[in-house]
TrEMBL record:
Gene: purN
Binding-site residues, N(1)-(5-phospho-beta-D-ribosyl)glycinamide: 11-13
Residues reported in the UniProt entry to bind (6R)-10-formyltetrahydrofolate: 66, 91-94, 108
Record site: Raises pKa of active site His: 146
Active site location: 110
Keywords (A to Z) from UniProt: Purine biosynthesis, Transferase
InterPro entries: Formyl_transf_N, Formyl_transf_N_sf, GART, GART_AS
A GO molecular-function descriptor: phosphoribosylglycinamide formyltransferase activity
This protein's pathway: Purine metabolism; IMP biosynthesis via de novo pathway; N(2)-formyl-N(1)-(5-phospho-D-ribosyl)glycinamide from N(1)-(5-phospho-D-ribosyl)glycinamide (10-formyl THF route): step 1/1
Matches recorded under PROSITE patterns: GART
Stated name of the protein: Phosphoribosylglycinamide formyltransferase
GO CC term, one of those recorded: cytosol
Length: 208
């Protein structure tokens, strides 16, 4: 399967995919064909360049409207003919045009146990709420914010040492679980196929 990965930051989830694929895309069942971002100059793009991958940047502020940005992101992504789009720390909400083109084939990873704590501050919100466990969720993107059908989840304990100031430390612990969860989920979707029925994701040989 051809993957386009969208990033906005450090790109450690992207790196985990690249490391898992290594020199055996056949074995993994997928290869990253391009990396897109909503801003330049981020480590995620450097990781892509180090891997010799094509990259593209679509900045919201370079477009007169959000819809035009969405169009541009869709075109830039479609140019690489992805079978799956992986949003790995991409911090923009894709629009109607993008979902019309890639709906059912966009996978997102979120650093909280959805449906709890959706949105851009999942780690901070879970800490503030005082949860005893949190974690991460790999899910398909639908027209809501972090509301699509869930593919996989991983749990991370929250301890007494996890103070609100320690959001970054907790997020790092979540990211350790998240990277493994994403690599395994994407590999299975790519190798075994899947079918989405309402909120349920059926993994495995499609059409049997
Ligand atoms: C990940 O935890 C992702 O879930 C969240 O931001 C982080 C991105 O990390 N949206 P990276 O850019 O993959 O290192």
């Amino acid at each position: 399967a051809r993957l386009v990965v969208l990033v906005s930051g450090s790109g450690t989830n992207l790196q985990a995919l690249l490391d898992a694929i290594g020199d055996d895309p056949e074995g993994y069942g997928a290869q990253v064909v391009a990396v897109g971002a909503d801003r330049p100059g981020i480590a995620g793009l450097e990781r892509a360049e180090r891997a010799g991958l094509p990259t593209f940047v679509c900045r919201v502020r370079e477009h007169a409207t959000r819809e035009e940005w969405d169009e541009a992101l869709t075109a830039a992504t479609a140019a690489h003919r992805p079978d799956l789009v992986v949003s790995a720390g991409f911090m923009k909400i894709v629009g109607k045009r993008f979902l019309a083109e890639f709906g059912g084939r966009v996978v997102n990873t979120h650093p909280a146990l959805l449906p709890s704590f959706p949105g851009a501050h999942g780690v901070r919100d879970a800490l503030a709420y005082g949860v005893k466990v949190t974690g991460c969720t790999v899910h398909f993107v639908d027209d809501g914010v972090d509301t699509g059908p869930i593919i996989a989840q991983g749990v991370v304990e929250v301890t007494e040492e996890d103070t609100p100031e320690g959001e970054a430390a907790l997020h790092e612990r979540i990211k350790e679980v998240e990277r493994t969860l994403l690599v395994e989920a994407v590999g299975r979707l790519a190798r075994d196929g899947y079918r989405i029925e309402g909120r349920k994701v059926h993994l495995g040989h499609v059409g049997e």
